Hints:
The chain has helices spanning 23-48, 61-70, 72-89, 96-120, 128-152, 160-166, 168-184, 194-197, 199-226.
Amino acid sequence: MSPWTPVFRTHPPPVPYSADMTPARFWHTVTLMVVAGALVLQTALVVSGASVLDETAAPALGTRLFQMVCYFTIQSNLLVVVAAVGLVADARRDGPVWRVLRADAVLGITLTGLVHFVLLRPLLDLTGWSAVADTGLHLVSPALVVIGWLLFGPRPRLDVHTVWWSLAWPVAWLVVTLGLGEVRGWYPYPFLDVGLHGYPQVLLTCAGVTALFLALVGVVRVAERFLPAAPRDTSASHDAPATQSV
Length: 246
């Protein structure tokens, strides 16, 4: 080969943004693993007959699994898992349906942590794996989600249209829960037990929890006006557009 022969060097193809492990995607991966692990542990405890809030004799397996899914805690953590899966794929994911899902995940799990800490934790005396599952679902999961949102967003996402649609799930959960309680005589949380407290007290408590949810909406809306847009990617792939979902 003569000294004037051109040499062509091959370079690996650029890694797309969705495959680049950024700090945001790392955090969402940790969140996904921790919360999914806590849900699996809680499911195993339910299958084995262990209980968290219901201290009576364990019902049939199908009933136990159905009642587990009825808990706002479980539903909000499932939303966290679904949202985390999307954010691991693209930390800047966006779209109208996605915004509602992410808003319900963040707001729902924050509400779960606050209500549990104030109203439910004083009633519990858990040990062993039940304590581990309870801590993971009610304390660790909210902390991971809130810190993740503060550090990595994605934001801004909570527009007025998203706010209205984000109310559909918690309102539907409350209506269905009270309706099933009338039919089955079972409520997932003691403060919703109409037979024990009566409708005036239960509805007053529900109004207080609803007001707390709306306050959280207001806090997030205000925070998004002052916090910088996130995530901010300084890598070569930062110009890649956010994934648009439905």
